[in-house]
Design goal:
Length: 519
């Protein structure tokens, strides 16, 4: 399975390379070859228990598929913005690609360094790939951009040491690279923009995303350190938790956001949410769907009898939430993407805050949340945190957040790029859901070495093609410009990756589909 997964990733990388064909795409190919060999060193370390931190044990290291995501996103963003003539975001894409390559190289060097005996061939390959990438960066980046890339690497190193120690068995090395690399880049961007505030420059919804992500991460780090010295399950600790959340929110996060957007954040948010009648209708509709999701949770827990406390929700039951998320995102993508952007940020902040309440057993809801959510755990939730619902939200939202709006003057990209915001809906909401439901109920022919079925994968591809046809009918802004063969190939490759990967598919699949659509 690892070899087939690697072959699919190589095909994706070469497809992007063929579409872009510049020095950075050559670097991506070199990085992929190097990551392929280093991945086996990580896998061996995980099997022997020789890794520095405790990683998720039910999956392989995932170094190759994770290493390529951020570089490919940067390369395709650079190419789209170059075609649109937006130099600032073209340079931004180069910084994203360079940062991703450097983070992946760092993780590879760590694996090679702690492997005993030292793997000579892998060391040479890592050195050659690193030399090619650093040489390209030297001749492509300005001094300020080099400093920015090194800042991201430094933040990543410190975050890795802190979070991987505090959160054992929550990530594989590849997932840690994606999640912590993303947080590092967001934090660096927030610091950079906070130091260079120019009134009227920058979109407030982008600042809102940066501040919200950094705010909830800092909140979690603060309380993790605090509750080392006191019991988090008491009423006094719970009152202190709520009080300090309000203090940090109103005393740090709000002023920080005010400095960036140059207006009162609460007034701006209320004005933004209720600006048009369409937004009011969408908010009412989303509130109804959120209540429906809560109803599913309460109903499934009510069905759980006292004799079957170890009973877990079935795959089909968990996919109810995928259907609800599709029903949430599709109207937002069609009618108001900016509102969807902000609402997804708010939802992410609420999800992470509720996870803090559950993890720290904060009264009065901490123990209740533990009981309610335990029904929906699967093998990927082997650590102290429950992250699958957060990954689902991220998988649906990242294509919306990462869509290069400034490089799409008409609000959409030409050709297959018009489907970029729908990448999460197609890959996770439609493809992964249909594959799981049909595969678990009617699948008989299994892919070699996996539990996934041929019927599930084929049904997923067919369902995504139907979904693309429906998007063409209902979203007038989408014009595929005869790029149907590329779309079919992209959907097929990502569906095959879903069948073979052991990483968090909710996070990985939408990003690869976005890369392919942008290429």
């Amino acid at each position: 399975p690892v070899l087939v997964e690697s072959l699919i990733v190589f095909t994706l990388v070469l497809s992007v390379h063929a579409a872009v064909w510049d020095r950075f795409s050559w670097c991506a190919v070199a990085l992929a070859i190097q990551a392929f060999y280093t991945q086996f060193k990580w896998d061996r370390l995980l099997q022997l228990g020789g890794a520095v931190f405790q990683f998720r044990t039910s999956a392989n290291s995932g170094l190759l598929p994770a290493s390529m995501v951020i570089p490919l996103l940067g390369i395709t963003m650079k190419e789209r913005c170059r075609a649109a003539g937006i130099v600032y975001f073209q340079r931004f894409g180069i910084v994203v690609a360079s940062s991703g390559m450097l983070l992946a190289l760092f993780l590879s060097v760590i694996a090679v360094g702690i492997t005993k005996p030292v793997p000579t061939n892998t060391c040479i390959l890592t050195g050659v790939a690193g030399s090619v990438i650093i040489y390209t960066m030297k001749h492509s980046l300005t001094v300020s951009e080099v400093i920015e890339v090194l800042e991201v690497l430094l933040i990543f190193v410190y975050l890795s040491m802190i979070l991987l120690y505090l959160l054992p068995r929550c990530f594989t090395p590849g997932e840690a690279l994606l999640v912590l690399g993303g947080i590092s880049f967001v934090l660096n961007q927030l610091i950079k923009r906070s130091l260079n505030v120019i009134e009227g420059r920058g979109d407030p919804i982008d600042f809102f995303l940066l501040v919200a992500v950094v705010g909830v991460v800092l909140l979690g780090l603060f309380f993790t350190v605090l509750f080392i010295f006191m019991d988090s399950g008491t009423w006094i600790s719970s009152m202190f938790f709520h009080m300090m959340t309000a203090v940090l929110g109103l005393g740090v996060i709000m002023p920080w956001l005010y400095r960036l957007i140059q207006r009162n954040p609460l007034f701006w948010l209320l004005q933004f949410l209720f600006q048009t009648q369409t937004r009011v209708y969408l908010l009412v509709y989303w509130t109804f769907l959120a209540a429906s999701a809560c109803g599913v949770v309460f109903y499934q827990n009510a069905k759980r009898s006292s004799e079957s406390k170890k009973h877990q929700a079935s795959t089909i039951t968990r996919k109810y939430f995928h259907f609800l998320v599709v029903a949430t995102y599709v109207p937002g993508l069609i009618y108001d993407r900016q509102l969807l952007h902000v609402a997804a940020v708010l939802c992410l902040a609420v999800f992470i805050f509720l996870e803090y309440v559950r993890y720290f057993r904060i009264k009065p809801f901490g123990q209740t949340l533990r009981h309610l959510l335990s029904l929906f755990l699967d093998e990927r939730d082997s650590g102290p945190l429950i992250l699958t619902h957060i990954y689902l939200l991220l998988g649906m939202s990242l294509p919306v957040w990462l869509f290069p709006r400034s490089c799409a003057p008409k609000g959409t990209l030409p050709g297959a790029g018009a489907l970029v915001p729908y990448s999460g809906v197609l890959a996770v909401g439609v493809g992964d859901t249909i594959a799981s439901v049909f595969g678990s109920t009617m699948g008989e022919i299994k892919w070699p070495g996996t539990k996934k079925t041929f019927e599930g994968t084929m049904t997923a591809i067919f369902a995504q093609i139907i979904a693309v046809a429906l998007i063409l009918i209902f979203d007038s802004s989408v014009d595929l410009n005869s790029s149907y063969a590329w779309i079919l190939a992209s959907v097929s490759l990502v569906s095959l990756l879903e069948a073979y990967t052991t990483q968090i598919d909710n996070l990985l699949l939408p990003l690869y589909l976005q890369v392919m659509f942008m290429a």
